[in-house]
Design a protein that fits this description.
The protein is globular and about 50 Å long. It contains no helices and eleven strands. The protein has a single domain, classed as Immunoglobulin-like. The strands form two sheets. Strands 1, 2, 3, 5, 6, 9 and 10 form a seven-stranded antiparallel sheet that branches. The chain is mostly beta strands.
């Protein structure tokens, strides 16, 4: 047997958790599986923050060496994605946060931790990682309309 992996997204003031999200689209609404046509980001504003976690289930011994980064996709003019690892959940906001740009190389990837007290670098029972906070930001030089698709990678070792 092996671990089953899925991304989960948390939204709303009281934290509504959606396991197994189908997309990580950024937009002007705090909801999972967002339709960007319905909730576009206005030029010179930011998206609502996304609070995501990896969820592991199934039968496995250990998950370790968890990393997260943007592996593919180019930005349009004035567009950035910021990210912070191992943060606490807070009500997602559309106010631009002070997080750093998401790493674009595996060598500088965010090191993701688990919720396990004994060793937060490992997952030994089914459960979640700590949160990754993401936000898409635009400037006045950003073109209106859809941005380029990006690939965000979550890598881990399983024993």
């Amino acid at each position: 047997m092996s671990a089953t992996f899925a991304f989960s997204e948390s939204n709303t003031v009281l934290e509504t958790v959606t396991d197994g999200i189908s997309n990580l689209n950024f937009g002007s609404n705090d909801s999972p599986n967002l339709n960007t046509t319905t909730y576009p980001i206005i030029v010179n504003t930011s998206s609502f923050e996304k609070y995501i976690r990896a969820k592991f289930s199934g039968i496995f011994t250990t998950i370790s060496n968890m990393k997260f980064w943007k592996s593919l996709g180019t930005y349009v003019a004035g567009e950035t994605i910021t990210a912070a690892a191992n943060v606490a959940f807070a009500t997602p906001s559309q106010t631009t946060n002070a997080d750093s740009g998401i790493p674009t190389l595996v060598g500088s990837a965010l090191a993701i931790q688990s919720t396990e007290i004994a060793d937060p670098t490992l997952i030994t029972t089914p459960g979640y990682t700590l949160y990754i906070r993401l936000q898409l930001n635009t400037t006045g030089s950003s073109p209106s309309g859809a941005v380029n698709q990006k690939t965000l990678t979550f890598q881990y070792d399983e024993v």
